[in-house]
Amino acid sequence: MEKLRGKFFKNEFGLLYYIRAEKNLSRYILYCGNRKKHKNITNLIHAFNDVRRENEFNDLKLILIGKRFTGSDKPDFIDIFIKKFNIKGVESLSRVSDDELNLYYSASNAFIFVSLSEGFGFAPLEALASGAPSLILADNSVLPEIFKDLACYVNPHDINEISAAVKKALKDRDDANHDKNKIDRILNGYSYELLAKNIYNVLLDVSSL
User: Fold this and answer.
1) Residues 136, 101, 133, CA angle at the centre, nearest 5°?
2) What is the rounded CA–CA span in Å between residue 132 and residue 111?
3) Which domains does the chain have, with CATH numbers?
4) In terms of pLDDT, which residue wins out, 26 or 196?
5) Which of 53, 76, 96, 126 has the fewest CB atoms below 10 angstroms from its CB?
């Protein structure tokens, strides 16, 4: 079975320096996933903008990795939101390779995932495997059960709480010292095949109702 550990891993410092230099990134927080409204990206952007207004964090960027919802008659609502509120420092990437994604996770100051509802968290697991120094996750659904004390949990409805968690992650980056044994126990319990099987079983249960 293909383990997350095999596909995503912590990168060496030299590669992290390279991607920051190549992409002109000093400090950034990262979101990876789709742009559906329950993913709560608008609250994430508001919180990011609040942090970036402070002089101490005015170089901060937010990287959004995930396919835009675009069409001739339906522009992406996140792009519209960013333009409406004139928010600076947000970069959107529709497609990246697995190798690039691994580097983006590793080089980030924090991975943030504040979905309003979530059946399972693929992206946080990938971020954990890639060595992201901080995970900021919503305090709802299954996420606290999976990641336990390896993440900072926030109320996804509370923009102030999200921004406070981001500032703490930026200040504490050098002190991040996750327990490798705890990380291994989580990651060794999951493979893409196992996750797909669990999702399939859930769908079967729902269809039988």
Assistant:
1) 35
2) 7
3) 4-207 (3.40.50.2000)
4) 26
5) 53
Q: How far apart are CA 107 and CA 118, in angstroms?
A: 25
Task: Scan for tokens 């099987």, then name that residue.
Answer: 197
* pLDDT band with cut points at 50, 70 and 90 for residue 136: very high
In one-letter notation, the amino acid at residue 163 is S
Separation CA 139–CA 185 (nearest Å): 21
Instruction: Output the DSSP codes for 167-184.
Output: HHHHHHGGG----HHHHH
Indicate yes or no: pTM above 0.85.
no
Place of tokens 């893409």: 192
DSSP 8-state secondary structure symbol assigned to residue 148: G
Q: Give the pLDDT confidence of 140-176 residue by residue, as tens digits.
A: 888 998 898 999 999 999 999 999 999 999 988 655 5
